[in-house]
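Why this split exists: single-chain examples teach little about how molecules sit against one another. For that reason, every record in the complexes split bundles all components of an assembly together and asks for one structure covering all of them. Below is a record exactly as it appears in the raw files.
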Amino acid sequence: MSSRSPNSQGFFRSRPIVGRILWVAALWFSATTSPYLLHAAPETGLLAHWRLSPEWKQGTDLKAVTGPSLSSIGVRSFTSDPKPGQLEFNPGDSGLLVAENPDKDLLPRKAMSLESWVRVDEPEAPGGILSYCDDREGMFRGWLLGVRDGRFFFALDAGDTAGSAGLKSPETAERRRWYHLAATFDGRVKQLYVNGVPVAASTNGLAEIRFPDAAPLLIGSVRSGAGSHTLQGALHEVLVYRRALASDEILERFQRRKAEFPAPAPAPPPLRLSFGPFAELKRPGSARIAWEANPGQQSRIVVEDGPDVLIQDAAPNSTGPRTTILTHLQPNREYHYRVVGPTDAGTTAQSHRYLLDTSFDYSPLPIPEVGQNPSNGQDQIREAAARILQRSGVRDGYCVLLGAGDPRLALELVRQSQLQVVVLDHNENRIAAARTLLDQGGAYGVRASVHRIASGPLPYGDYFANLVVSGSPLTSSRPPETAAGEVFRILRPEGGTLLLGELNASTRAEWERWHLMEPKANDIQPTGEGAWMQFRRPRLAGAGEWSHQYGSADNTATSMDDLVGGDLQVAWWGDPGPRPMPDRGNRNPAPLSVQGRLFIQGNRILFGLDAYNGTILWTLSAPEVRRANVTRDCSNMAAAGNHLYVVQGRWLLNFDGQSGTVLRRHPADGDGSTGAFDWGYVAAIGDRVIGSRQKQDAAYLGDDGEWYEDFDDQQTSRVTSDRLFSLDPETGARPWTYAGGVILNSTLTIADGMILFLESRNPKALAAAGSRLTHEQLTDQYLVALDLKTGQKLWEKGHDFSDCQYMTYLVYNQGTAIVTGTDREKKFHTFAFSAPAPGLSGGDDLEKSIPGRLLWSDTHKEDKGHHSGHLQHPLVLDQVFYSDQRAFDLRSGKLLRMDLPERRGCGIMSASHRAVFFRHHYQGVWDLATNRRSQFEGIRTGCWLGMIPAGGMLLAPESSAGCSCTHAIQISVAYAPKPAPPR
Amino acid sequence: MRSRTASLLRRVTLGWVITVAVVRASASDWPTYRADNSRSGVSPDDVPGVVSEAWVWRSRQPPRPAWQGEAKWDGWNKVFDLKARQTFDRAFHAVVSGDRVYFGSSADDKIYCLDAVTGREVWTVFTEGPVRLAPTIANGRVYVGSDDGHVYCLDAQDGHSLWNVRAAPSDRRIPGNGRLISAWPVRTSVVVADGIAYTTAGMFPSEGVHLLALDAATGAERWRQIQTDLPAQGYLLASPTRLYIPAGRDNPVVCDRATGKRIRVVDGNGGTYALLAGGDSLVFGPGKTGQLNALDEGPADQLATFQGNQMIVAGDRSYLHSDTELSALDRGRYLQLARERKAISRRQGEIQKALRKLDAAGGGDAEKAKLKSELAELGPKLDARTQSMEECLAWKIPCRWPLTLVLAGTTLAAGGQNEVAGFQASDGKVLWTRPVTGAAYGIAAAGGALFVSTDSGSIHCFRGSSQRASLNAPAPAESRTP
């Protein structure tokens, strides 16, 4: 369980020895320097006291006034302006962890008090102030002071029946007002005080306080199931006593300090963005931010924590689409910004607070303007480089220059592109001269290098070169010395370009001999233009693509790539590393790969990479792009051809895959001006996009490290859609729209000209269609098939899927649609239906070819009872349905095997045509031909689908980020098949 | 006037340095990363009470570290500010031998030799990949590894190649960290001891990670071991009998120096910072949250855990450096108490286990009573040791220079953001602060001078004399292609 082992640091007792020394000394230091302690007398029975104020923050720690200090609390919004000193908790923030599992022996059992000064900004949002409790399985253990239904809330389990029911303040908390709260238990009576006055009491206490088996002690949050509720507001301090404070004592404490807490200032009205923001880091020290506020709303950017940052805004406070350039940004630093704008009332509205992290600038280093000594022919070289770049269309990735005959060309290629240039030669003098020239030009190393190579095979892996150029195109028209087969071997598939010397009558025969020297060369036809010989490598025969969450839109979790087997070697490694990635890749959208590009969704940041060499083509900080818990939803990304489609709120954004430029945007509803609906599902099929509409903010965001594995409505509720439609992404036209039942996003499946999904027709669900609904609400379910072209219903089948309680998946393969899910006892329930493609019979057995006919079903207890084994997504490969640890015949349901590879991890399976990939201790591989199971030691994949076989490669973007384990390597990696041993 | 404590400290420091220095050529050299094969970070040479910048060398491009940093948080455990466990190449770490300064560059793939007095470039040598770790100087030779998979042995005077060995098992090169480099980059430096140069090649266990011993004079291979479970990244360490191989984010591997055979993988929370605190006592970290694990020579399990990023051990005193504080401990007494505490704790466990066994078997009341009595006595003993350990703290001060720490004679020097600082080792008093360009991740101390390496690619020389030079644009130097 290394991936999720709890923090072993206990409450008081388990701190390291020197940590205790430092703690003791820190108290002494604080007591002599803090204004708070100069007049503070020791409190009787005071167990812990945390003041959440800037002066108590030291480095990354929060020092306690009394009790354990908190370490590694992250970037937090502490402020003393306005007073009092406070820590603000904003949407997306987490609570502060005091201890993952406190030492129960040190916590009070017979009597206790909790006390806090708190400000509530969103009373309707449930949140914890101080909590140590577990409410799973309907049982409440421990204690909680927090906010629920707009009121202050105190729950404590003392063996009474009313433990979790708790005490509530009669009045709703006033937004942004400071309150003094105290909650006491004297062994019999529980009381809640607001501003020194008792407001609720219970005498049901029967015994000692009962603790949870395991629960964290949190400030500002409460963990409920595997989800968390963080206070929306601010805390000034929290205290824990091992005695019940007396009522007059509480009143005195309130009276003594109430003057320090001013009346609430009016909260700035929210500014809701229609589009964006998106931030690009393309040059060191500079960022470009694009956004759009709702129609008619003027807006501009303010940077909260960068006083030196210059904001270049050509039209501040204008409406419509906006861009701003930020300059003077420091490297490797986090900035926070907001969009603000005036309101009709004369106040300033403000957006959410957004993060801009300049360490996420992956653009190639610009070459300094030094060492440019114009020499004879320099203009000619410059023009040659420009021609090469223009003719090839290649400007990113790796360029190999065959021969160091004229190293000025390498320097010019670097200066005019984003390329990393590698010059190959065997001549010592030419090598030395090339290195010197490139070094003097400031390019050696970071942008160019010169490799000494011997004759024979090139010492490089396959596929990495985007551009291969003759080193002396101006002076030599002869074929290079390197064999054609070797040159072609290193060329990137799907567009890697070979641009060589002049083809003329005198050299044609030489070129033809060179070209035909190696059998592989015959795969590539010359497309010479003018005086240049140019070859462009096509897609690898047998290569697959991973265009949707589970491979293709049929959800089979396979790419059917024929090239990627089980015997692989590292092909490249590099960024992104763990820093921009979401925690453990838990139930997140999978990476995609089409046309040799790899698209990765980090934590609110998008990446476009060259899949064959790891070059980061583009990144885009997209703080409003996020989706989590795809187990109960669908991905927000799909890719086809040159396009990447990404959902951002109400829009579907159509990106150019190579540049990351947003080409178009399509609203989920109407013209997108209202924002009442978000875009839900997205699939890219041929020249059409299939989309769905859901209510605003229905998607899960997973910003608090939620695990989504427990049986809890807050984790298992399905995201639904109320409309399904087809879109022409070129014109924006919508040929059809389907409005029927409540569509479960996690079941949307497209294959063989059909769209399949489950929908609920429960009237109560229909009334809330498009929102997040529980499985109890989503009753009366139908399996529905629509015609992909027309949107017309082909057939439907009502069925009882009520056992699919944790989740509901749907996959399709070869006329068979399979619904699967687990019940609350973690039993898998699988239902296979005949689903013949339109116009096809669906099989030899006429009876079984009837659309919607149940072919088989299976029920079994989960085989993998750990690491979310009950949430495993199935896989279909060559008419075999793999689910949990079992394999079934797709059509008959016959159990074929139960020996699927042991998977220790929380990830799910993905497959090429020849191998299955999964998370074991490390990245796991199951070679289907040999039944060999192996691992790439030291590298962990994520907690959903993180390894994708596509383009003849196994692509494994970093997805272990945040894992407490000591896995040696956290980086994005790609693997390629090992070359066949020499015959 | 120096205090008696300072004088005492100086004496014990010198004595200790003599015992652990394996490669140090002379008293004024800093011939390898953090001074010696123990990575002690200790120089016997004091620096003047007040230093000034003598020269600064600036790279045209900043270092290109292989590892950007850790995740922003551990969401499951709600732990923020996770420590980067692989920071070995964030600056061009310098080594010093005689009047020369040497370092490698991850930006322009070169090995540099500067004049220590003026900062002028004496020679440079090209490699075919980033040089991420500092060279080692021994017997007038420069030993350094590159991401190109090769180990270079150069003449320290003029940089000419004496030998060049491909440590990688083959010359296969692939894109790695944004460059076309060996699939088996050399990322653990080269340590030289007793005429043998030790190094590694490789970082992906599935490709095989090679540990090599080479004849330091000829480059001939003495032995080669291959590990298939852990990478090799971070500065190698060597004791008289063992090699310590940092394994990136994971825990170091301990090998027999004579054969390269693995002895064990140590227990801890991972990280490439490591120190041999006398003999084979290993301190390493910083783990996930900035903790140093200390292990005794024999056992694989931890003796103690310290909150901090780096440690200096000098005689009977340890200096502990965390993100916010610098402290000094009476090390000998502390470790003795830690050993006693551990023994008590172990005995407690044994008794509890025995009691459970007796409970399960039933009966044995007399034996149980005896054990319970012993257990009751152990608690206060444990608390007493704990209290005594807390009293081992000699001094502690707030410290805003958390990136690196060295001891030069009686002065501690610490690196921070755009600044370095000097402290009196006896009491932690701040002696001076000086500005630098960037985050000071590396300090070398030799001959009364400090050479500070930053993440901007600058190397600042501070010394007591008034001699200064500023080298914003590197002077041309003879560049070699080995």
